[in-house]
């Protein structure tokens, strides 16, 4: 696979994940958040395990451990995202999740114990201003859905950093499948403890759950670690910034969600922070290269 194909694959993943907020909104009409997580990742794990069962011959204790770690983080991402979508609009959730691209370099600075660059500071300030305009309701308070979405975005930033360390070898594909099963098990556990287990009641709800399981989870979370090996982090981050755009577009078309003037200004600031942070990482072009 060359870098161009990998980037097109990541663009398709961004589209799939952009649609996930719409599908989660539809799926949550009939079942609880943890029930949705259990079904979504359970379907993805089952399908991928059946299709690629021979891969399990390569299973080692190390691969299983990595899959468990990634699965726990994956569950925590969707603990925030699903609860966030349940308390806010799908388009708002999509834009809030895009702040992951700003959080990643901030976390890297903390891990390396270095001061953040001017780029990170400016990008963070733009994102914070955008978050305020997009999610503030009365005064400086944020709604519950926004807080959940930010928790999901934080754990997704952690996910990106960890997956860069543990999923670079030949076992990356198997790790990606195992993480789906772990996320489903944790969702089922919380479902049994906090909710009444149930199944979707309408064809629309079943369609949303199947879309989440097959397209957004089985495809998205298995393709990501593979495609990341063939292109640069800067390009991946820039491609991921398309996700909230797809989310807002699909939410407008299918759910008729409108953010309002303040919301669109906030969304534009967040999008600007994402683009600015990624484009500023590119090395300047020397005169000999022009």
From TrEMBL:
Transmembrane helix as a keyword?
yes
Location of this chain's protein in the cell: Cell membrane
Entry keywords, A to Z: Cell membrane, Membrane, Transmembrane, Transmembrane helix
Membrane topology category: Multi-pass membrane protein
Asked if the keyword Transmembrane belongs to this entry, the reply reads yes
Which GO terms of the cellular component aspect does the record hold? Answer: plasma membrane
* Residues annotated as domain EamA: 6-135, 144-277
Q: Which InterPro entries match?
A: Diverse_Substrate_Transporter, EamA_dom, EmrE-like
Q: Which domain of life is it from?
A: Bacteria
> Which parts pass through the membrane?
34-52, 64-82, 88-107, 119-136, 142-161, 173-194, 206-224, 236-255, 261-280
Query: Which Pfam families does UniProt cross-reference here?
Result: EamA
User: What protein am I looking at?
Assistant: Putative membrane protein
Species of origin = Oxalobacter formigenes OXCC13
């Amino acid at each position: 696979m060359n870098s161009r194909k990998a980037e097109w694959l990541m663009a398709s993943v961004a589209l799939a994940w952009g649609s996930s907020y719409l599908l989660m909104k539809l799926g949550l009409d009939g079942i609880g958040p943890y029930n949705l997580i259990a079904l979504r990742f359970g379907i993805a794990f089952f399908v991928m395990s059946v299709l690629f069962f021979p891969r399990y011959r390569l299973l080692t204790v190390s691969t299983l451990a990595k899959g468990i770690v990634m699965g726990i983080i994956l569950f925590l991402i969707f603990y925030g995202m699903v609860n966030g979508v349940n308390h806010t609009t799908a388009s708002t959730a999509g834009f809030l999740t895009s702040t992951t691209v700003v959080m990643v370099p901030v976390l890297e600075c903390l891990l390396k114990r270095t001061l953040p660059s001017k780029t990170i500071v400016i990008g963070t300030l733009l994102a914070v201003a955008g978050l305020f305009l997009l999610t503030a309701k009365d005064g400086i308070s944020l709604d519950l859905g926004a807080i959940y979405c930010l928790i999901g975005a934080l754990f997704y930033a952690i996910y990106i950093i960890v997956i860069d360390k543990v999923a670079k070898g030949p076992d990356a594909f198997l790790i990606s499948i195992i993480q789906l099963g772990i996320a489903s098990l944790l969702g089922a556990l919380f479902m049994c403890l906090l909710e009444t287990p149930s199944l979707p009641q309408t064809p629309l709800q079943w369609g949303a759950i199947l879309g989440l399981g097959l397209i957004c989870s089985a495809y998205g979370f298995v393709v990501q670690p593979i495609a990341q090996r063939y292109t640069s982090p800067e390009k991946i981050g820039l491609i991921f910034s398309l996700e909230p755009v797809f989310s807002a577009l699909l939410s407008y078309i299918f759910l008729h969600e409108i953010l309002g003037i303040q919301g669109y200004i906030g969304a534009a600031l967040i999008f600007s922070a994402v683009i600015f942070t990624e484009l500023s990482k590119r090395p300047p072009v020397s005169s000999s290269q022009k």
